[in-house]
Amino acid sequence: MKKVQTSDSAKMRILKTASDLFYRQGYRSTGTNEIIKKAGVAKASFFYHFPTKEALALAYLQDLHSHEAENLLKFVNERQKPSDRFLAVIKWIEPWIKSNKLRGCGFLNMVSEVPDKKSPLRKMAKKHYAVLGGLIRQLTQELVNSDPKRYRHLDVSAIADRYVAIVVGAIALSETAQNTWPARQGVEVVNALIPIP
Amino acid sequence: MKKVQTSDSAKMRILKTASDLFYRQGYRSTGTNEIIKKAGVAKASFFYHFPTKEALALAYLQDLHSHEAENLLKFVNERQKPSDRFLAVIKWIEPWIKSNKLRGCGFLNMVSEVPDKKSPLRKMAKKHYAVLGGLIRQLTQELVNSDPKRYRHLDVSAIADRYVAIVVGAIALSETAQNTWPARQGVEVVNALIPIP
DNA sequence: GTCTATATTTGGATAGAC
DNA sequence: GTCTATCCAAATATAGAC
């Protein structure tokens, strides 16, 4: 049985174990019993730190959001040219889904698993993609500002919306097809959103 | 409690009830007990017709695939012009997700719910989108054939792949955002895949 | 093919001691 | 904060009669 660093606090061990299991196996397929065993904690310790399974799932999503935003931003900021920065988001997808072994997006998967539309878990997913949309909008605006003559006619908001949808399609179809081609085709589609340089 | 037509056979009542619940509530969130109650059958009758819950889910997906393929084909075949037929698939998405109350795609949702990559349920989802890709490829080829001079340079396979990914993005993001805008933006993105007429 | 009744495991969550 | 022991409901599935 795979276990987590015993040097961490019980709370951290629970969160790390659950994050791994929730992502790989899904939220509903992962029982609290399994998390408790693999984290090496007592049952009561689990519910001491997280009053419900849903509270733990919320912590998982918050953690996931922070880490993914950080990694993506780092990838974008390795580039200087506005057109490179603009394309960075969709170019990030292929290596990212590969490293995730084609298990897709933890937020999209959570939405599918949680039917209740008012669930805080769904709210987190919505927020995650709203933040991504904000980043893309900003990169699009930077691109337009870098060459106003060429890009003057572009609708920044519409392009950002389309871009997010393309990202989601690349991720979700990669999981269903168990192949990375949607991520690569996504790069071409995003490229077509702006005039040929 | 919502029940199904009692005039149907027990097997049909089970399948119809389960299809509704699996789609709206998700596969794992729906217990066999609930299906049994709402279908108005005995426990043993359930397992007589469907040896496992998974077998029922498989029947659900097969049914869903047939119905969705039929409806989409009808929508496409109401059009004659190759460019209209080509665009019909993405234009179908907005009314379709609305009628589904933004619960997304039963196949994508199933993939998220089932972690096992060898599951027959995942295979069905993969096949569903392979068939959709085939239809789109065919419509793209028709379009190219209708005006070879204009479309000669197009890569039919690449366009079809991109098109499917855009469809998936429109559906999945509509569910997460609980809004139809991704479907409308999808139309614009697909439009940009081919030269302006 | 359909029924009632039951088996068995796992689900999330708690009581009370240390 | 962490532990052992336990509760109860819900999960999937089966036995055996009609």
From TrEMBL, chains A, B:
Keyword Phosphoprotein applies: no
GO MF term set: DNA binding
Residue ranges annotated for the HTH tetR-type domain, each copy included: 8-68
InterPro entries: Homeodomain-like_sf, HTH_TetR, Tet_transcr_reg_TetR-rel_C_sf
SUPFAM superfamilies hit by this protein: Homeodomain-like, Tetracyclin repressor-like, C-terminal domain
Keywords: DNA-binding, Transcription, Transcription regulation
Pfam families xrefs: TetR_N
Gene3D superfamilies membership: Tetracycline Repressor, domain 2
Residues of the DNA-binding region: 31-50
PROSITE patterns noted in UniProt: HTH_TETR_2
Protein name per Swiss-Prot or TrEMBL: HTH tetR-type domain-containing protein
Lineage: Bacteria, Candidatus Gottesmaniibacteriota
